[in-house]
Design brief:
There is one protein chain. By secondary structure, the chain is an alpha/beta fold. The chain contains eight helices and eleven strands. Helices cover 34% and strands 20% of the residues. The strands form three sheets. Strands 2-1-3-4-5 form a five-stranded mixed beta sheet. InterPro entries: CheY-like_superfamily, OmpR/PhoB-type_DNA-bd, Sig_transdc_resp-reg_C-effctor, Sig_transdc_resp-reg_receiver, WalR-like, WH-like_DNA-bd_sf. It comes from Streptomyces shaanxiensis.
Length: 234
């Protein structure tokens, strides 16, 4: 019996990719961006999973030998079907399944297959398939980040954020109480590797805005990275 849709507003993504060199970094980046991922390397496994639970997005390697039937399966043609992003075996865009999500027309092949670009396309498809309304906010204590309005506040205080600060705060909130390395943060905030000191400067600016005169929420774990939480970890 299919599982009901999740009620915690975290999008679920099914990766059907044959090459771990594409699948592993893409899965890690999606999870840092706030998605739950399940990865399989066969169309038959994906078909079985799609009958058991609902996904918001399927990222599908069309070069796998058993995916033709999956692309025409009843689950992907159902009214509440997930968005589908089609990739080649090397991770290049091929397009999106027709009708996969409103306003989500495919991008024909030839685009570079960087995982950051795939993540950006995945975000577009998931957003296009989201129903109107809903809370769309991430919270930790009195800190709230609203994805629907792209605004942050702490208690009654509004926090003005640049786009990079917003992406960083979202990354820290999704991974609250977990130490993130500079490499992990850099992959989420920038498409290209950041310049020396860029992450430290960005964290410093965000820390001043979030902490202000209130109890500190953004901390440094020397030698390891940064984390968001209520009290310094040992």
């Amino acid at each position: 019996m299919p599982k009901p849709p999740s009620t915690d507003a975290v999008p679920d993504v099914l990766l059907v990719l044959g090459d771990p060199r594409t699948c592993e970094p893409l899965s890690a980046l999606l999870e840092l961006a706030g998605y739950r991922t399940v990865a399989v390397d066969r169309g038959t496994e994906a078909t079985a999973l799609l009958t058991e639970r609902r996904f918001d997005l399927v990222i599908l390697d069309v070069t796998l030998p058993d995916t033709e039937a999956l692309r025409h399966s009843r689950r992907l043609l159902a009214p509440d079907r997930p968005a589908v992003l089609l990739l080649t075996g090397t991770g290049e865009f091929l397009g999106s399944l027709p009708g996969g999500a409103p306003g989500a027309d495919g991008q024909p092949g030839g685009a570079p297959g960087r995982v950051a670009e795939v993540l950006a396309r995945a975000r577009q498809l998931v957003r296009a398939g989201e129903p109107a309304g809903g809370d769309g906010a991430l919270r930790y204590g009195d800190l709230v980040l609203d994805d629907a309005t792209r605004r942050a506040r702490r208690g009654e205080r509004t926090i003005e954020l640049t786009p990079a600060e917003y992406r960083l705060l979202r990354c820290l909130l999704v991974n609250a109480e977990r130490v993130l390395s500079k490499e992990q943060i850099g992959r989420h905030v920038w498409d290209d590797p950041p310049t020396d000191g860029a992450i430290d400067r960005l964290v410093s600016r965000l820390r001043r805005k979030v902490n202000a005169e209130q109890a500190a929420l953004i901390h440094t774990r020397r030698g390891f990275g940064y984390w968001l939480g209520r009290a310094a970890q040992p």
